[in-house]
Amino acid sequence: METKEKEKEKEKSSAPRILDVGAGTGLFSSIVLTKFPQAKIVLMDMTEKMLDIARDRFKGNENITYLCKDMTNIDEETSKTFENQFDYIISGLAIHHLTSHEKKYIYGKCQGWLKEGGLFINCDQVISPDPILEAKSIELWHDKIRESGIGEEAIDMLKERMKLDKCDTIQLQLEMFKEVGFKHAEILYKYLVFCVFYAYK
């Protein structure tokens, strides 16, 4: 029994099973692969064009699979197949596009899809409960973008896209994690409108 447990731990440390939710072009997973080059990763995104770019990015890597699914409406067959299957589930700048109800739905799904003790990491945008501080954070963010050399036209386009965002507060999302069954949930990092959540099953 002890040998089997050690083998499982060794496999997790060298070749973990990872699900990337709202994976887009696979940028987040490409970063993860620098830490776990043997990882077996499922990229899930609702846009086939995004996944096509990811396929080019990971061409030749047979440990990467692709799944075109809407994270807010996962069919029962897929959900059952994923139950208790992943060591890690990650998401980068995707879930803030969802309503509060949809966020809680996908957090619940991720909790069910993780193995016992598995880790969920969500790098995303959040909103401050204080409107004054929220406005200040956005102003500072835009200033940082200007300092990088990006022009006002691009910033105006960003402002328009932000109108479609459905960001929630840190506190509300930490409560969601607990409500759907995560044992431990906290933030690892916060900078202006960006935050890294982590939660253990």
Tally of helical runs: 8
Low-confidence stretches: none
DSSP strand content: 15-25%
Cα-atom radius of gyration: 18 Å
Largest sheet at a glance? 7 strands, mixed
The outline comes out as globular
What fraction, in percent, of the residue positions are helical? 40-55%
The secondary-structure class comes to alpha/beta
Order of helices and strands: HEHEHEHEHEHHHEE
How many angstroms separate the termini? 23 Å
Average pLDDT reading? 94
Question: Could you give the count of β-strands?
Answer: 7
Give the spatial strand order of the biggest sheet.
3-2-1-4-5-7-6
Compile the SSE list and pairings.
Elements: H1 2-14, E1 17-21, H2 27-35, E2 40-45, H3 48-57, E3 64-68, H4 76-82, E4 86-92, H5 100-113, E5 114-125, H6 131-147, H7 152-162, H8 170-179, E6 184-191, E7 194-200
Parallel strand pairs: 1-2, 1-4, 2-3, 4-5
Antiparallel strand pairs: 5-7, 6-7
Helix pairs in contact: 5-8
List keywords for this structure.
201 residues; alpha/beta; 7-stranded mixed β-sheet; 8 helices; globular
What does it look like?
The protein has helices spanning 2-14, 27-35, 48-57, 76-82, 100-113, 131-147, 152-162, 170-179; strands at 17-21, 40-45, 64-68, 86-92, 114-125, 184-191, 194-200. The longest helix is centred in the C-terminal third of the chain and has 17 residues, at 131-147. Helix content is 45%, strand content 25%. The chain has eight helices and seven strands, in the order H-E-H-E-H-E-H-E-H-E-H-H-H-E-E. The mean pLDDT is 94. A seven-stranded mixed beta sheet has the order 3-2-1-4-5-7-6, with helices on both faces. Helix 2 (27-35) links the parallel strand 1 (17-21) and strand 2. It is globular. Helix 5 (100-113) packs across helix 8. The two termini are 23 Å apart. The chain has 201 residues and is of the alpha/beta class.
